[in-house]
Design brief:
The protein is of the alpha/beta class and about 550 residues long. The protein contains 22 helices and 17 strands. The strands form three sheets. Strands 2-1-3-4-6-5 form a six-stranded parallel sheet, sandwiched between helices. About 55% of the residues are buried. The model has no long low-confidence stretch (mean pLDDT about 95).
């Protein structure tokens, strides 16, 4: 069979471990579909291009292999911009291949003619247009190599339509992994010295610890020196729920009284107080150490007492040796203080997790859900207040099983993430937690779940408002505008109309049985829970 450029692009993608192409049909990229058919690659078509990119991004985050989205020209590509931006902020190795009006017609006003790469320059590692059919293999290889090199991130590559249809020669693909960056031993020795001097250290484990396959080395490091751990993003689950060093529920005390905070694999952004720790109850400000997978990720906006960049597995192993040499010893009094604070916080929440209040308190939803989650459940958050409760009360038991939009905070990720999770983890529970606001961005892609036989349990916290905006506006101005949604809107009926299952829950006693029916259904199923609109999540930061 004669090969065309689309065949070559798909074959190179497969060499980099891609087995699913996420897309929404468009004529500019037909040769890529034809190549997927020829090369036996799965095509997963969605109802909005944002979901294709979100699915590719979740695939990268769950499998730690690159994700692939294919978008048609013009609006197909602009619809994917938010997904690419989310991948950028999450450091997800995603390759987006786009169609482009024909070179032979360029400049004459062809359908959806647009120069796409400039749109992506600030939110990708590389954005470029392929140079021709004969170079398509090299171009696609460059896209994947760039996406995978530390610090990982998205790459955009589009092709002129006539170049994609043109004949192209098959070529061997070299998929050499990026050479691991070795951390500077002198920097590690200095960090070990700081840890040896610290009386109240805290270790933060972020998403890049998981993405760098460093979760075992990080856990061993924490356990060796008995360091209290606060997870961030996909760092959740590296220490499983119930671990004695897990200080999530003592976060305020830990960060407020720490004298040394080591942040690994996460940016010092709003989620971590921009890198300001300590200062509570008369404590001095904490020293801060930043560990990252690449020098470009080390914080520059705040003063650091120490930093190191490199392959995070190598970094944790080498730091363990440096700490042993420096005589680092556990701080049992500090660890026990945080353990007791966490236990007290858990005990204080017990009543609300079992609350019989009517309307339903959102915490009751998580009290019920936690009883039904399996150890390997993949939990996905897409929302504001409702998902903030999940971040506090759903503690993964294994690493790599939590997905949220990350620091970019883009709503609408949920259905794309769910599609990818069901494919990546076919035997696990997949649970999507939706705010009713977030549901409006992507619920039509339940049709995708149904068409491709991808059962997912969806739980919608329906309080009839944009909770993240309504309550703060009231506080600031004494009124609110543009913050109301339809009370008890029947999002469950949207799901049933698309071929799934669902029901509306208005009583606390109905939550547990409804969740059980959802897990037992074997179809995409939405439990639409009417929650109390007067209850606001007690957040301490707005991200501003």
């Amino acid at each position: 069979m004669d090969k065309h450029a689309g065949d070559i692009a798909v074959a190179v993608s497969q060499a980099y471990g891609v087995d699913t192409m996420f897309t929404l049909s468009g004529g500019h990229v037909f040769p890529l579909y034809d190549g997927a058919v020829h090369e036996d690659m799965r095509i997963l078509d969605v109802r909005h291009e944002q979901s294709a990119v979100f699915a590719a991004e979740a695939t990268a985050r769950l499998t730690r292999k690159p994700g692939l989205a294919v978008l048609t020209a013009g609006p197909g590509i602009t619809n994917g911009v938010s997904g690419v931006a989310t991948a950028h902020f999450n450091g997800s190795p995603v390759v987006v291949l786009g169609g482009r009006a024909p070179a032979s017609r360029w400049g004459s006003g062809a359908l959806q003619e647009m120069d796409h790469p400039p749109l992506f320059e600030s939110i990708t590692k590389l954005a470029f247009t392929g140079s021709g059919a004969d170079a398509i293999g090299q171009d696609v290889e460059m896209a994947f190599r760039t996406a995978l090199a530390p610090h990982r991130g998205p790459v955009f590559l589009d092709f002129y339509m006539d170049h994609l249809f043109a004949p192209a020669e098959e070529r061997a693909t070299e998929t050499l992994a990026p050479s691991p960056l070795e951390p500077d031993p002198d920097r590690l020795a200095e960090i070990a010295r700081l840890l040896a001097e610290a009386e109240r250290p805290v270790l933060v484990l972020g998403s890049d610890v998981w993405m760098d396959r460093a979760e075992e080395a990080a856990r061993d490091f924490a356990e060796e020196f008995r360091l209290p751990v606060i997870p961030n993003g996909q760092g959740r689950g590296i220490l499983p729920a119930g671990h004695e060093l897990l200080a999530t529920r003592a976060r305020g005390l830990a960060f407020g009284q720490a004298d040394l905070v080591i942040v690994a694999g996460a940016p010092l952004d709003f989620r971590l107080g921009y890198g300001w720790f300590g200062g509570k109850d008369g404590a001095p400000l904490a020293r801060v150490v930043h560990l990252a997978d690449a020098p470009s990720q080390l914080a520059t906006h705040t003063g650091l007492s120490g930093s190191a960049a490199g392959d995070l597995s190598m970094l944790f192993w080498a730091l363990t040796q440096a700490c042993a040499t420096a005589g680092v010893t556990p701080r049992p009094d500090w660890t026990e203080k945080l353990r007791e604070a966490a236990a007290s916080a858990i005990a204080a929440d017990a009543d609300l997790l079992e609350s019989d209040s009517d309307p339903i308190h959102p915490m009751r939803v998580y009290g019920e859900l936690n009883r039904q989650l399996a150890d390997d459940a993949v939990v996905i958050g897409d929302g504001g207040d409702f998902v903030s409760y999940a971040g506090k009360y759903v503690e993964p038991r294994k690493p790599g099983n939590w997905l949220d939009p990350g620091p970019y905070g883009c709503l609408g990720t949920g259905l794309g993430y769910s599609i990818a999770a069901r494919i990546a983890r076919p035997s696990s529970q997949v649970v999507l937690l939706l705010g009713d606001g977030a549901a409006g961005f992507s619920l039509m892609d339940v049709d995708t779940l149904v068409r491709h036989n991808l059962p997912v349990v969806m739980v919608c916290g329906n309080n009839g408002m944009w909770g993240l905006e309504k309550h703060p506006m009231r506080m600031l101005y004494g009124y609110d505008v543009a913050a109301d949604l339809q009370p008890q809107a029947r999002y469950d009926q949207v799901v049933t109309a698309l071929g799934g299952g669902g029901e509306l829950v208005t009583k606390p006693s109905e939550i547990g049985p409804a969740l059980q029916r959802a897990f037992d259904s074997g179809v995409p199923y939405l439990v639409n829970i009417a929650t109390d609109p007067e209850v606001a999540y007690p957040r301490t930061t707005t991200g501003v």
